[in-house]
Model the fold of this input.
Amino acid sequence: MNPETSKMLRRRVSELGSLPVMPSIVQSLGTCLSASPGGPDIGRIVELISYDKSLAAQCLRVANSAMFAGRARVQSVRQAVLSLGTQRIRDIVYSCSLPQMFAGGAKHGMEQSTFWRHALGTALVSQHLGRLLLVCDIEKLYLAGLLHDIGILVNSLLYPREFQSVLEQAEASETPLCEVEQEILGFTHCESGRVLADIWKLPADISDTIEFHHHPSGDELDGEITWVVYLADVLCRLRGLGYGYYEAREFDLAAEIPWQALRKRHPEAAAGLDLARFTFELDQYGVEVQTMVDSIFSSVTVSH
Amino acid sequence: MSTNSAIVLNQKAGDADLADPALLKLRDLVYRISGIFHAENKFYLLALRSRRRMKEIGSNTFADYLEQLTTRATRDVEMRNLLNEITIGETCFFRSQPTIDAVSKIIFPKIAALPAKQAVKKVRVWSAGCSTGEESYTLSILFLEQIVAKFKDWKIEIVATDLNDDSLAKCREGLYAEYSVRNLSAAMRDKYFRQEGNLYRVKDAVRAPVKFDRLNLQDQPKMLFMKGFDLVFCANVLIYFDSAAKKRTVEHFYNGLVPGGHFFLGECETLFGIYDQFRLVHFPGATGYYKAVPGEDAGGKK
Done:
């Protein structure tokens, strides 16, 4: 990143009255889910969620929402964890807590529901793709997918009017967002996201994903988490989980640098992956993600 | 069983069907044989359509039906019947908006920018297995509606082929029921169709660029003559071929395309494991296949 841009963004972010805060539950739950070899510690997960009363209540509400209809109604956090499984609970906890990071902050810019739909979609698809390609740290992939675009939120806060024109121009010209950002702002959400990632002290590979997810080099510099998130991001934008507008682009994913880098590292898994079938399968996430985001945002609106 | 309990059973069939592991196996079998893939959000369609066939042949469970499709002597006939059921009613005007957008917003501007095309200014399209003509006429309308205004002096030539003489007769007749034109606005209907009672007939301007021909896709000598296309469409036809015939036919499509040309299958069909010369390409909401230009950098298509 251009050091001047970085310095300028750092200054602007530090001048913000209230700095966006990374919900502590996201990191503690992430650690809890990925660390234990003997399976996750259910007791600890329940404890973490129950610590925040409003989060716990929201989890129960989402757990009992239409998406999980047909299952028994859950009354407690422990019941929710046991009946839905740790993966589902993780999805619910993250999605319930993340929108609050920037709640009430940006008056302009991307609709929060659109933003989180893409974030959650990318997280799920990254994880699914990572599993098929046998990439090791699945839990981290989820978090990297979820946070890869935080720079968009930073841009909405720092430059509300300019970013609004970025969105309008991108939609009108059917062009990828980062190209228009570069043109209007002189930098992209990759760079502003990196600044926030550093302030939050996110793990290095997640910060790298945030910085390089639009221009991965395919060498060790950005690493396989970036590659997977890059592909998941593109796939989500292509299958109705993007930024809510048509991007007139044709992608030959197999020819993209990240795919080639992944194929080199996991040749057998990559050769066996039916990419067209994988793409069709993504459409089932669309429904799932939409339901979850609708459910979260109806409650966020009420609580403010 | 009383009528009442039969009704209750039917209503409940939905959820139970979707959770039946045999349905998953049926999905994989259909994919292996035909290349049509039902994602989870399309399971209900597969369940519904299989149920229709099962009722016909007196099969009560998916597990039993699966056996009928794999081990019985009549399995090939029944698979064909099921595939017919799966693809029935698939055709209408402007059926797949994502494919239409990909053609008009991405592929066509790319073709129009090719230096080699500047002298001829013509785009050639082949609709292989054109059935009753909706897809071919849709392309003609799309060209008139969205492309002709932006790219002056360009022409389109649509070659539409099918094996079935009755279908071809319907194509030439160009007369469609309201159901076929349901995706079109009233203004579009008025512009491109003449209403005849309850029916809609395509106007001459729509008809002019389309040439209908009888062609068997398995007729090797004739297939060799199909050359020089920028776009080939072949939806829900290969699904009935065995894997050797599929490969042979797709190879003809590949050879029939100019370098830089595109090939589209039906919405949920794939070429995985059939033919690997094409590159799978993604457009918003649609997938297609691309014939690379010789020497084209693998990373050069963005």
Remarks:
- Residues 130 and 162 of chain B are 6 Å apart (CA to CA).
